[in-house]
Amino acid sequence: MATVQLCVALLFLLQLSSLQFASLGYNVPDKYFINCGSDNSVTESGKVYVGESTPQATFSSSNTERNQSSVPSPLYQTARIFRRESWYKFNIDNNGTYLVRLHFFPFSSPTNLSSARFNVSVPGFWLLQNFNGRNDTNNNSALVKEFFMEISTPSIKVTFRPLESSFAFVNALELFVLPLHLISDKVRRFTPTWGSSSDRVGLYSRVLETKHRLNVGGQTMKDILLRNWIPDDIYLTYPENAKNRSPYLGQIVPRVVDDSDGPNATSYTAPSEVYGTAKESNISASAEDLSLFNITWALPVDNNTDHFLRLHFCDYVSSQFGLTYFELSIYDFHVMQVNSDGNVSNVSPAPYYYDFMVNSDNSGHIKVSLTPNETAAIPNAFLNGLEILKVIESSNSVPPDEPGSKHNGLPVLLGSVLGGLVLVVVVVLLGFLWRSKMRKEKPVENSDWLTIVFNAARSSHGRLTDITNHGSPLPNLNLELKIPLVDLQLATKNFHASQLIGKGGFGNVYKGVLKNGMTVAVKRSQPGSGQGLPEFQTEIMVLSKIHHKHLVSLIGYCDERFEMILVYEYMEKGTLRDHLYKTKLPSLPWKVRLQICIDSARGLHYLHKGAAGGIIHRDVKSTNILLDENHVAKVADFGLSRSGPLDTQPYVTTGVKGTFGYLDPEYFRSQQLTEKSDVYSFGVVLLEVLCAREAIDPSLPTDQINLAEWGMLCKNKGILQDIIDPSIKDQIDQNSLRKFSETIEKCLQEDGSDRPTMGDVLWDLEYALQLQKGANAIQREPYEDSSSSVSASLQLPNVRRLPSLSTLSEADDTIVRDDESDSTVDYLFSQVKIDDAR
Predict the structure, then answer these.
(1) Where are the domains of the chain?
(2) Which of 390, 482, 642, 685 is in the most buried spot, having the most CB atoms within 10 Å?
(3) What is the pLDDT of residues 370-400, one digit of tens each?
């Protein structure tokens, strides 16, 4: 019996090992590595590239010729030249993911290889189009194009198609199968628009082209799959925020492969040399706000195209798992908390990685940021490696490998020509209609929505001036607000680090003093910024036509030399968030917090109802509420705002934008924007003010991560008191708290139609403040309990709602009377028989 059990156990272990160690027995195949244009074999990077006379692959030789040169590398001394459509054909023994590499080095020759223009395809996919084979960054180096593709056919052709009156060439070609599970078919799609990852996308039906492969913190090297890893330094947006970790001198043991798609790393995912070097946050000893020490890479990519991102991590500094965790952002939107834990490996340090599919924006870059988490035992952020691969979609325009008769190709040709003609006619007609419409349209401030036009033209003029001069529909841009770049350089000591007061999605913010002595905040865009010209224009258009005591004033802007700089009034006390949590500043009293909420509500109410046409802010959050030296609050950052007649047009379908944690769930689901979306976001801010914690905190238990959900759960359970900021618990009158919490609950209703207007919110907050003042005015006996005293003393009958003074003061679109005193408000409430809230 024992023998039988032993045999069963051995069989089980054998089966398990065959599953787990399937790719550990992998060796890079010998085929196919082809030295094109030669019959001789050469060795390069430890691999033998066989001559074309070796019967490994077949190629169409009737339209080809060779060329030779005396360059140092033997692999690039010959090239195969194609004067007509030609191909290499490879037999496929095993289905799987294959790597295809094409080597190009246009050495000097009578043929002048640099003049080549051609396309390269595999069945169903264009690998290269209008390609020339030159390495524009280093003329003395070969250009290697690398592709990953799934192959499940008995053979495959790589076809070279010269453009008209030109030719094609290639120096070397590789095609070999990759280890199992190196790239998974299903990858999470991350959506920069609203910062979420879902909808697992299939990769095996696509082709991937390598764009960047970075050995972060390390040097140039090749791995066992002959992939080239290069240093990351040139892609750092804020080099001063990062430093190289000392290389790891021990052995890094990857976890054995299994059927999962991460985060487990194998020896083929990336070499130990990559996991043994890293960039980490360069945090100063006196740092108070660790968010200022984020590490950001901006890597050039094609615009508006899907890209596959793989981020490699290995914590070889911490003595145990979980001591260091940090936040990962893409395009300034939070993606996840990175945390190495025991699930990665039983051996420390353990390498791991995360994959995402990201659609690039029109900035020309993909931006990846890592931010230290102040709650971690060892606050830090690090990255060991980064790969970005362009996703190539299949194309019906790729000719089949085995074309039929000429008649079979005729319908395709005719369809393409006719389709092109129809497209041209449609474009011309649309252009004509658009121009006619633009001549008849009214100025921008009277249109339904702010019209934002992106002009990609380059000139020596400023961006916005140049656009306006070319007939852009931005005739009302206030050019009197333009400030010369040299004045801003003088004001900020040439944007010196000592003047830096903040960083955001748009760029850095500097404190400056203009020539007239005015202190200002100067927000300067950075390369790779998540925001761009549309946000820049919107901010100017919105702020140049509205004026309010509780909206941050735009002093001016600068758009010289492709700079995008916005200049605001200086707010001495910074953001509301700075005074609520993760701060060394004194805790704000409850009455001050209430007044800040009222100030902010006044500003938003004016945006919705008082500003010309109505404006939806779209990014209400505690970091966009600024405080002056007297803690007067002003709403800021209008780069995502939308303008229009909100009363006559209750919603507009639009791309979802905002900040995760504050985003209206109804807006997220329906993509229909209303002013009630601002009301929801403001409700989250009210909860922040009450609880002094951030809107999203991934370090908390699952049900507590989202503040809005957690706050409403606690209120429904009757335990809201338990999550209030301890520093203000004893200051809050219970009636004031009840009114305030009811206001939050109304703002956070799932359906926008159930939420109050911002005018209603303003009224309720003013009422909560009066309840607080009334409670403070009551004379109490010594040792009397404040909450029970207030509850007993203030009997609150139902009251007829009167118009808010703030509402009355903001009836004028252009000038605002908003200087009412507390005594005036007290008088208004004294005329009402107060008993209970609406």
Answers:
(1) 33-177, 186-392, 463-569, 581-778+787-830
(2) 685
(3) 999 888 888 899 999 999 999 999 999 998 8
Work out the number of other CB atoms within 10 angstroms of the CB of residue 290.
Answer: 20
Between the alpha carbon of residue 149 and those of residues 97, 125, 175, 345, 672, the distances in Å are: 6, 10, 10, 29, 39
Taking a C-beta distance cutoff of 8 angstroms, is the pair 624, 637 a contact?
yes
CATH of 581-778+787-830 given 3.40.50.720, 1.10.10.10, 3.20.20.140, 1.10.510.10: 1.10.510.10
The two structure tokens encoding residue 838:
């609406």
For residue 781, the SS3 value is coil
- Could you tell me which CATH class the domain 186-392 is placed in? mainly beta
The helix (H) or strand (E) run that includes residue 603 is helix 590-605
Band of pLDDT at residue 275, cut at 50, 70 and 90: very high
**Could you check whether 33-177 and 186-392 share the same CATH topology?**
yes
Cis check for the bond before 349: say yes or no (omega within 30 of 0). yes
Question: Which secondary-structure segment (H or E) carries 766?
Answer: helix 758-777
Phi-psi region of 373 (alpha: psi -120 to 50; beta: other; left: phi over 0): beta
Closest by CA to 478, choosing from 491, 470, 468, is 468
Question: What is the spatial distance between Cα 564 and Cα 524, in angstroms, rounded to a whole number?
Answer: 6
Report the predicted TM-score, pTM, of the whole model to 2 decimal places.
Answer: 0.50
Backbone angles phi, psi at 128, to 5 degrees: -140, 140
Domain 463-569 adopts which CATH fold? Phosphorylase Kinase; domain 1 (3.30.200)
Segment 677-693, tens digit of pLDDT = 999 999 999 999 999 99
Give the active site residue among 619, 664, 733, 764.
619
What gap in Å lies between CA 738 and CA 796, rounded to an integer? 12
Enter the CATH code of domain 33-177.
2.60.120.430
Spatial contact of 565 and 488, defined as CB atoms under 8 Å apart: yes
Query: Which of 18-22, 499-503, 794-798 is modeled with the greatest confidence?
Result: 499-503
